[in-house]
Amino acid sequence: MIPELGHLALILALALAMVQAGFPLAGSFNGRRSWMAMARPLAWGQFAFLGIAFACLLWAFLSDDFSVLYVARNSNRLMPTLYKVSAVWGAHEGSLLLWTLLLGGWGAAVAAFGRHLPQPVAARVISVLGLIGIGFLLFMLLTSNPFERLFPVPPEGRDLNPLLQDPGLAIHPPMLYMGYVGFSVAFAFAITALLGGKLDAAWARWSRPWTTVAWVFLTLGIALGSWWAYYELGWGGWWFWDPVENASLMPWLVGTALIHSLAVTEKRAAFKRWTLLLALFAFSLSLLGTFLVRSGVLTSVHAFATDPTRGTFILAFLALVIGGSLALYAWRAPAVSGGGRFDPLSRESFLLANNLLLTAFTALVLFGTLAPLIYEAMGWGKISVGFPWFNTMFLALMPFLALFLGLGHLTRWKRDQVGRLIKGLWIVALLAVAGAGASILFLPAATGGSLMVALGLGLAAWVFFSHLAGLGGRLRRWRDIKAIKAMAGGRLGYYGMLLAHLGIAMFIVGVTMVSNFGSERDLRMSPGDVHEAAGYRFRFEGVETVPGPNYRAARGRFLVFAGDRRVAVLEPEKRTYFTSAKPMTEAAIDWGFTRDLYVSLGEPLGDGDWSLRIYYKPYVRWIWLGGLFMALGGLLAVTDRRYRGFSRK
Amino acid sequence: MKARHQRFVFVALAILGVGIAAALAISAMRSNLSYFFSPAQVRAGESPAGAVFRLGGLVVKDSLVRQKDGLTVTFAVTDNAETLQVSYTGILPDLFGEGQGMVAKGRLGEDGVFYAEEVLAKHDESYLPPEVADSLRPVPTEKNAETATGR
Fold first, then answer.
1. Are strands B33-37 and B53-59 parallel, antiparallel or unpaired?
2. Which of A307, A384, A397, A613 to mutate to test binding with chain B, by most B CBs within 10 Å of its CB?
3. Tell me, what's the pLDDT at B146?
4. Per CATH, the architecture of B36-137 is what?
């Protein structure tokens, strides 16, 4: 009964979405206020029905209702409750429901927090969200209904893929989806601007917080995914340039460009059409990401075995959204007037460089990700693009981004003098060069060459000290109480920017250190053996068998010594889940601010011997900490008084 | 500088940048592409000598042998037409198993053994990489054998 209720709620949500996509939009053109006024209640209703559907599926999981096919495939009586909850979005159908629920949630949020918006704008934004909702609800109801029944009812479910039974993965997809779906709001605002042919500073101020919040979620989602891959897949890497990772990175890169371009649009009324184009692409790339993950056209660690009708549907939907929005852009963009002028040496120029670099890199990632499809379609053979290619591309472009990052925020809008910049920055440049030099002199030989280390650490120092200089300059200018008060009350956007850019510097340090000084060894050990890596001694104590809730584990024990001091006890596991023939590796990690020690079990080799993997990962945490700082910076920026004061009006 | 000139400079710079990036990307890609071959194609000499490529197929049952050092394993990979010996030093992924699909990246040795640098296995155990699924020949059961001889 409950699953049917959920199914019904989905159908009702679709009906509401159709009304939501039609009436408010039509009303905004013919000026009927009553039609436009329908937008907010409809958005709420949409969210409510999707919530009911989601709750029904959650109930089916919690009550072990294996008559529902999706539950039978992805759950099990023995599974801990947390994973029964996360199993709701553990596979295709449920993750789609989560996606749609979040879309409804963003729509409701626009209805709730967008009270300051002029009525036609709010109506159009909510209508566009309704249009997207129709696409996803149709997709779900026609090709992947999560409430499909199974007969005869099996006595026990098949269990969730053991890889997904992990707290990190319980929150990673919702975060990522919040980001993906969040760009739909930026998209809806862009469509609204195109429909109205009007794009002013107020428009930029409305869409900025929405875009930033979506970007914050996407940042967190990607960082969590990378962290999960690091400890759960047991390969010890943090980024694999896997198609699915790329699929989440591309909207992030474009979203980052969009945030910066929106800043120019708000402050200087420039880059208007470019901003619109970026907003359209950020969401289109989010959809493409879904397509890549769900269709199984690319070989990926994330690929699900899928049926082709789904791929066809998403492809058609994708063509409709991208084609439709670009056609609208081509038709209406000329109506959006070009913006303010600026000199080659101005903040606008640096932000332009930021945008060009980010979009160029996105294009490269897109090319590398789709190259196997292109080659196969052209009959040139079956290829894969190795991750060294992506690394090379990253290294070719991103150092310039970091270089400009240190310059842009200190440069004045519209026009600046070279002399002023040099005066403010020569000491920063000196510190950066000193940092690079020190890394060559004092650090041990690096695997990637000491020049790479010098480049990485030098750029990190450059970014860090440049922002420190910027902060110092600002504090000096505001050395009276009034200014400090104003600073505490508002102006948080600036501090958000500082924090996010600090995150970039941390990220650079982490990547540089772990790629150049990390070590990885596969080896065979007998109980009592000692292995030495990077000054740490790992003593293997042996392996014992321990029971778990829905698995049995072989648990190894390692004592790690630095000199004579014991620094860690590591207990990696090899788990065998009752419902699966395959074992699962659970790595043991002793984490630290400046290094991770990482051990994972391979296979038993007889006589108590095991094959093992021992990693030393210096500064690897800084990569995710950097991501966290970027996200925090984004959050801080959103709370800027500029947006708060405005929404209170 | 006039606005028109300014725009021209920016457009020129953008085109230059895109051009350089494209040239870089394509030239770098040549050395990073790895093609996919099935055991039958390798036997037929289609795979490049000395270059890295990917080999995919099903792992032959009971062919997995562990060498004395405990880390080197050898196994046979088949596309149901030909089989090829593969040697790999290191820890195999959890989802690797006899009778299942796998993709390995490495080089073909002069002794006809494929020396894998990396063995890939996927999230989902019911999942078969699309390249492997395409390359598999139908298993010659009795019925197939009949139609084959009848042809």
1. parallel
2. A384
3. 35
4. Beta Barrel (2.40)
Mean pLDDT (chain A) is: 88
B17 to chain A: which residues are within 8 Å by CB? 356, 360
Q: Dig out the tokens for A5 from the structure.
A: 């209720």
Residue with tokens 């896997």, as numbered in its chain: A242
Dist. CA A348–CA B77, nearest whole Å? 57
Provide the CATH number for the domain formed by A1-160 in this structure: 1.20.120
A583 touches B: beta carbon within 8 Å: yes
Kindly report whether the global pTM for this prediction surpasses the value 0.95.
no
Q: How far is CA A365 from CA A223, A239, A588, B63, B101, in A?
A: 18, 13, 32, 39, 28
Q: Read off the pLDDT band of A602 (50, 70, 90).
A: confident
ipTM score of complex: 0.78
Which residues lie across from A557 on neighbouring strands? A542
Contact A265, A338 (CB under 8 A): no
Q: Enter the DSSP assignment of A412.
A: P
Write the pLDDT tens digit of every residue in B92-101: 887 788 888 8
| B4: closest CA of chain A, how far (Å) | 10
Per the CB < 8 A criterion, the answer to whether B60 and B85 are in contact is no
- Give the other-Cβ count within 10 Å of A10's Cβ: 25
- The CA distances from residue A561 to A519, A555, A645, in Å, are 17, 20, 56
Q: Per the CB < 8 Å rule, is B21 touching A364?
A: yes
Q: Kindly list the distances between the CA atom of residue A127 and the CA atoms of A31, A132, A181, A371, A522, in Å, as whole numbers in the listed order.
A: 15, 9, 15, 36, 56
